[in-house]
User: Fold this.
Amino acid sequence: MKDKKNYIVAVDIGGTKINIGYFNKNKLIKITKLPTQKYGPDNIDTISQILINSKINISVICLSLTGLINKEGMWNPINRVTLGDFQNFPVVKILKNIFHIPVYALGDTQAAALGEMYYGSGKSLENFFYLTISTGIGGSIIHKKNLFDGKVSGIGSIGHSVIKYNGRFCGCGKKGCLEAYSSGNALIKRNKIKKCQNTKELLTTFKNNLQTKKIVNEAASMIVQSINNVNVLIRINYFVIGGSVGLNSYFYTTILEKLKKIQSPIKIKKAKLRSKAELFGCFVYINKKLFLKK
Assistant:
């Protein structure tokens, strides 16, 4: 039997996982979780089928996408190793043709920043930089309680700022990007502990291992240097940190300890919404009609 309620559906496509959130009457009613397929566009067929099979009335869909999304709704990866080598994938048009309803799309860190601004750790802040440290690394700027130029999804892409000249190769094609040193993918690539299978284990089960401490110290140092660079460039003092790696207690504490050693006005806060930040950000984007802003 079909559910007669009207739902706003938020879809967050991350580097390793997908969350589909169903909102009704300003509440998140349900979340469907699934792993991200290696090639980005393949996920759209899977998501479409899940929504069709849900048999609910969907009034609007908003996407939170890893990579770049332009104003025409074309999706492009930044790190092609993580999300696949595709170009100008018309994700918004495809979903509009399937469901015949309004469809919008944001960068994932844009969505997370909006979510934290309205419902999380950014509620009391006028300006802040949202930094996600997960499979990859990304960022977005909140300026005067708004996305800084919400039409450009790549603003704040701190993960692909070069932190070390002629350094490690990054999946974006450059050398020395922050993402190549401090992301979840970067941490596990450096791991030499045979029993350690993934980043989560590295930062929990094996956090006291000397090799883990060395990896985390370097990664956290790079994060702090990058945060300091952003502060110097645009004078934002508050940073909200999210993502599975950024929210790990050991990793976050290491960042905090290193930040205390430098003289700066920088203050960091943990993202309150955790993995739901992008979903709530998509809801905000629709509910507050932010797509109408020029």
